[in-house]
Design a protein that fits this description.
disordered N terminus; globular; 11 helices; 2 domains; TetR/AcrR family transcriptional regulator; DNA-binding; TetR_C_16; transcription cis-regulatory region binding; HTH-type_TetR-like_transc_reg; Arc Repressor Mutant, subunit A
Amino acid sequence: MQVEDERAEPAGGAAARRRKRDREATRRRILDAARDLFGEHGYDGVTVRMIAARAEANMALVNRYFGSKAALFGEVLAGESVIRGVIAGAPEGLPRRLAEHFVRQIDQRAVTAMSRMLDRSAGHPEVKEILLHYLEDVIVEPLVAQLEGPDARARALLASTIIMGGGPVRRLLGLNDLRAADPAELTDRLTAMFTAALASSVHPRS
C-alpha cells in the first residue's frame, strides 16, 4: 500500500496560490498604472478605463480591487509615501528623523511620482478629501501614537504643518535656495523645530 506523503499539498493548493499570485500581480499593475497616469494627467484627467487599459486589466477588476477612482488614488498616495516608516521607531529620535526626511525631500532633484500626482491633482475636491484622510491616517495618528503627555494631537498637528508645508513652498517658490544651504545646518534647524513642535511643555520642568 502506498503511504501518502504528509507534506503533499491539499487538492487545489497550488492552483489557489497561483490565483493569489495572479491577483497580487494584477493589483500591482493597476497601482503602477494609476500612479503613472495620475502623475501624467492629474486626477481629473484620468479615468478608470485609462487605468485598466494601461494595466492590461479588466475595468471590473479595478473596481473590485479598489472600489473607486478616489480610493485608488488614496491607495497610490499611501503606497508612495515613506513618512510612516520615518515616524516609526524610538520616540526620542523622532524629531531628528523627521528633519532628515525633510532635508532628503529638499535635496531630491528628480520629481517623484507622488509630487507629480499632487502637483497635478491637489485642487480637485475629491483629492482634498483624500489628502485629509492621508494626513490623518499616515501622519497625524502615527505621530500621536509616539507622543506622551497632554495635547498630543495638537502637537502632532503642529509637526504636520512643518512636514506638509514643504509641498506648497516647492510648488510656488521652488527649492533652489534651500538646496544651496548646508544640509547639516538645515537638519539641525529642522530638528529644533520638530523638537519644539512635539515637546509636551514649552518650558521644561526643572
